[in-house]
Please model this.
Amino acid sequence: MFDPASPRCSWGAARHSRCARTPRRHSLDSPSSVRDIDREHSLAEPSFWLAVEFRGRGFMAEALAAVLRYAFLDLDLNRVYAYHMVRNPTSGRVLSRLGFQVEGLLRQRVRKWGLFEDVVLQALLRSNRHDSVGPSD
Model:
């Protein structure tokens, strides 16, 4: 279970919570975090990554569902948004499976290894979240 009080979790300034999530039946840690928490506007961004050898087994969807439950139920956020690079459609599919909706394309938003990359912006609202990320209001 995602537990922000866990010794695996650390809090930066009031705008960031970084936690590790252990997926089902495995000892692997999937780093997940809630970052850029904006209390005034009730929104934040999840950050997630998974080693190549563990991809395609549902671990990231499970970890992100836990992060989203925490964001909506414990942090009481209204909106969670995420970016993924256009060349990484797998991350986009994970977000879509959790109920995120595409909101737009941000051209050359990030620089990765010296090259500017386009990213897709997706968001999930409290009122639109799936049962897998907690009950809706």
Notes: The first strand starts at residue 10 and ends at 11.
